[in-house]
Amino acid sequence: MYLEYYGLSDFPFQLTPDHRFFFESATHRKAMANLIFGLNQSEGFIVITGEVGAGKTTLLGRLLDELDPDAFVANKIVSTHLQGDDMLRSVASAFAVPYQNLDKVSLLNGIEDFLVACHHQQKRVLLLVDEAQNVTPQGLEELRMLSNFQVANKVPLQSVLLAQPQFRRTLASADLEQFRQRIIASYHLGALTSSETRDYIKHRLSVVGWKDNPSFLDEAFDDIHRLTSGIPRKINTFCTRLMLFCFLDELSVVDRNVVKAVADDLVQEAGQLVPQGRGAGGGVMLSADALGEEIAEGDMPRRLRRLERMVDKHNRALHYLASFAEIAGEGLE
Ligand SMILES: Nc1ncnc2c1ncn2[C@@H]1O[C@H](COP(=O)(O)OP(=O)(O)O)[C@@H](O)[C@H]1O
Ligand SMILES: [Mg+2]
Q1: pLDDT digit string (tens) for 236-249?
Q2: Residue ID of nearest Cα to ligand 1 atom 9
Q3: What pLDDT, on a 0 to 100 scale, did the predictor assign at position 320?
């Protein structure tokens, strides 16, 4: 695969979280500063919103890595439409507090006993709620009640909520006034700028030993930024395809023609053109037109050469199979 061809030690654009690849953009830095500021307040809720793929879960992983395990007990729940009691059960389960077949009062008692025990061990409890846009107002209300619980005038539980942007609309509703008052820090994780997109791509490549092969022209970085709106997950998805394309074509330079060819392939596969800037889905939102300038000129011969090379590769593979079959004394049928 392309790893050997380009001398890379690992896939640079995988979607699985891997702290080796963490890139500190301005927006990620500010989000982290808000998290740390919020933690220093020792109470209430910290809310981080961001588009799908902006890096919220990655940020949370980063925070968990940096927390002092002697000072915090931190656990995460990923919410899927959690109602009131379900929320309490999830919180209990996250902290290994018994929750099965218990009524609400027993659940609450169990969680409160746990919080008291942590307080006595001089540990703070941090509840991390990922995909918090799925929590119902009733579930949020339960969280608020838990966050009011005090031991010796201290609030042992603090929560960080990570959510897609629509969560701000939920929070704005009149019923959640009391919840809003308990938010002590909030930040919207934005997209990467054009120059950050370039640095992000270079950073991920450098982590796996990239030696400027393939080398990217500035115009390619600009176009990748426009096509992906600077959302890390979309950049990763796009660049994975780009690397594969470069490998198949044996390319050592990525210019805007290459970027456009990959975008065209992806658009064709998706079977539709999605205008840039619309939709909130997590897929790569691409529009070949988004590249602005027409670069059809001169593109055709290049793509034909690529096809020829692919056919050539297939032929070589078939010859190899045929010779193998001969040696084995079998036909290919
Ligand atoms: N700051 C970052 N540094 C490195 N990779 C990042 C960063 N932010 C996001 N990513 C990458 O983008 C992808 C999506 O990030 P994720 O945290 O899952 O987004 P979200 O939770 O907001 O949907 C992941 O593959 C992750 O590796
Ligand atoms: Mg996430």
Answers
A1: 999 999 999 999 99
A2: 55
A3: 38
> How much distance in Å is there from the Cα of 157 to the middle of ligand 2?
22
Report pLDDT for 269: 84
- Ranking 114-123, 184-193, 253-262, 269-278 by mean pLDDT, the lowest is 269-278
Supply the mean pLDDT for the chain: 85
- Closest approach atom of ligand 1 to CA 18: 27
3-state secondary structure the chain: CHHHHHCCCCCCCCCCCCHHHCCCCHHHHHHHHHHHHHHHHCCCEEEEEECCCCCHHHHHHHHHHHCCCCCEEEEEEECCCCCHHHHHHHHHHHCCCCCCCCCHHHHHHHHHHHHHHHHHCCCEEEEEEECHHHCCHHHHHHHHHHHHCCECCECCEEEEEEECCCHHHHHCCHHHHHHHHCEEEEEEECCCCHHHHHHHHHHHHHHCCCCCCCEECHHHHHHHHHHHCCCHHHHHHHHHHHHHHHHHCCCCEECHHHHHHHHHHHHHHHCCCCCCCCCCCCCCCCCHHHHCCCCCCCHHHHHHHHHHHHHHHHHHHHHHHHHHHHHCCCCCC
Please, what are the domains in the chain?
A: 2-18+193-297 (no CATH), 26-189 (3.40.50.300)
Q: Looking at residues 168-196, what average pLDDT do you find?
A: 96
The alpha carbon of 54 and the centre of ligand 1 are apart by a number of angstroms equal to 6
Residues within 6 Å of ligand 1 by CB: 15, 17, 21-23, 25, 28, 50, 52-58, 232-233, 236
